[in-house]
Specification:
This protein is an alpha+beta fold. It has two domains: 2-97, no CATH class; 100-293, Beta-Lactamase (2-Layer Sandwich), CATH 3.30.450.20. The protein is built from 15 helices and ten strands. The strands form three sheets. A five-stranded antiparallel β-sheet has the order 5-4-10-9-8. Strands 1-2-3 form a three-stranded antiparallel β-sheet. Strands 6-7 form a two-stranded antiparallel ribbon. A hairpin with a 5-residue loop joins strand 4 (112-116) and strand 5. Helix 13 packs across helix 14 (262-276). The chain is elongated.
């Protein structure tokens, strides 16, 4: 594989181009493989990126022998058509992925989301997230990447993103994190949920791999109380309060909206904390964001600080 990665895109090569055949044929490995029907190849690299490579390979049995120069030449004329077909396939997959994106739904609910590809480049960014990074007060969006303005915060953010990207390759479960990040002004800190796109089922195809959900205490989200009731294991009345808190409402504002007293809302919020293990409005808002985004709460541990890790 490594020799093949060095070949020029669009050039024809064979096994003889990749290996020192005389040296290889003197090895025990070759003797072992020769007892089996091992095909000769004529191949061409169609495309290459930092994370993937597409190769067209034509194989035939050892009985028929190696591909001749004339036969390799017959392969060359079809390569432009195959490369065009591969490009069109990529466009179609991207279009299909876009139609399955939850981004429009997330935006209606007020979620601030960013979707990253395997190279950490931004594929999608919601209006709310874009508005927040344009403020340059905690996050920045530069050269197609999302970064935290605080150096230590960015180190933790990039580490969490890297862990999620590695998990999408290895298939590990439980990867993901919720980080609390500081602003450069005196405004309240905010949280960022880092999760795997594959497990969140945001996109079934395409290059999307990592989902960031920005939970800003100064900008609430809209969550259906019925969804919160089922996901958090709380009562309908408690879910109504949780939904108000997720919108960024104070207890007094929540009470006015629900037509009840502040004391009742406070008691219901205390009951929510007791049942879920959350200890603050910020932690509850993070959990609500995870529910709305379709992320698993089965391993959610309550505390949401710089060291908290959560299963997705």
């Amino acid at each position: 594989m490594l020799p093949a990665m060095s070949q020029t895109v669009g050039a024809i090569y064979t096994e003889a181009s990749l290996l020192d055949m005389r040296a290889f044929e003197a090895t025990e490995t070759f003797a072992f493989l020769s007892r089996r029907e091992i095909p000769f190849i004529a191949a061409a690299t169609l495309s290459r990126s930092s994370s993937s490579m597409a190769v067209l390979s034509v194989q035939r049995s050892r009985r028929l022998g190696r591909f001749t120069s004339l036969e390799q030449g017959r392969l060359s004329p079809i390569l432009p058509d195959v490369r065009r077909a591969l490009f069109v396939r990529g466009l179609l997959l991207a279009a299909r992925a876009a139609t399955r994106s939850r981004l429009p739904t997330f935006q209606r609910l007020g979620l601030r989301t960013v979707v990253l590809d395997p190279d950490r480049a931004v594929l999608e960014i919601s209006d709310g997230a874009l508005a927040m990074v344009r403020e340059a007060d905690g996050l920045e969006y530069r050269s197609g990447r999302i970064r935290a303005l605080d150096r230590e915060g960015d180190r933790r953010l990039q580490q969490a993103i890297g862990s999620v990207l590695e998990s999408t390759i290895s298939g590990e479960s439980g990867s993901g994190a919720t980080l609390r990040l500081e602003r450069i002004t005196e405004r309240r800190s905010f949280s960022v949920i880092v999760a795997s796109v594959r497990r969140s089922l945001m996109m079934e195809d395409g290059r999307a791999r990592c989902l960031l959900i920005i939970c800003d205490p100064e900008r609430g989200i809209s969550a259906p109380p019925e969804l919160l009731k089922a996901a958090l294991g709380i009562t309908k009345a408690e879910a109504l309060v949780a939904a108000q808190v997720a919108k960024g409402c104070s207890l007094q504002a929540a009470a006015l909206s629900l037509g009840t007293s502040r004391h009742t809302c406070q008691a219901q919020l205390k009951s929510i904390y007791s049942k879920t293990g959350f200890r603050s409005h910020a932690e509850l808002a993070v959990a609500v964001a995870r529910v709305v985004a379709g992320l698993d709460l089965s391993k959610h541990v309550g505390r949401c600080d710089s060291g908290t890790r959560m299963g997705d």
